[in-house]
Design brief:
127 residues, alpha+beta, Lipocalin, 63% strand, globular
Length: 127
């Protein structure tokens, strides 16, 4: 009986670890956006260290823009990106969830006192 109990506990712990690994946002994510009639591929690189989320997105002229205020817990991610557009700061807030190889994010863009909301679905890039 004791062995069966031990095996059940090991299975539950292992299943929990695998579920966490499955929802780990570490990696490269891609999605497409359409702006001014043109399709652009977007890339996001993320890395988890505990409950801290770090990473970057490509900016203009090939410069990487680091994510800010990144957090990860129970498959949920949130972070911000600050860009400068025509001399104005544009803050973009991302929040959502990892489901295997899909990252679903709500995107809130704040510019000139106006907030716009959209949703994206990014796919993990396989190495």
């Amino acid at each position: 009986m004791r062995q069966m109990f031990t095996m059940c506990v090991v299975m539950l712990v292992t299943t929990g670890v695998l579920a966490d690994e499955k929802n780990d946002p570490t990696g490269t994510w891609k999605w497409e956006v359409q702006r001014q009639g043109q399709r652009r591929e977007m890339t996001l690189k993320l890395k988890v260290e505990g409950d801290k989320l770090t990473g970057s997105m490509p900016g203009r002229q090939g410069r990487e823009i680091a994510i800010e205020e990144g957090t990860y817990k129970d498959g949920k991610v949130s972070f911000t990106i600050t860009r400068e557009v025509q001399g104005n700061k544009v803050v973009v807030k991302y929040s959502g969830a990892v489901e295997g190889d899909t990252l679903k994010l709500k995107v809130e863009t704040e510019r000139n006192g106006q907030t716009r909301t959209s949703e994206i679905e990014a796919k993990r890039v396989k190495d």
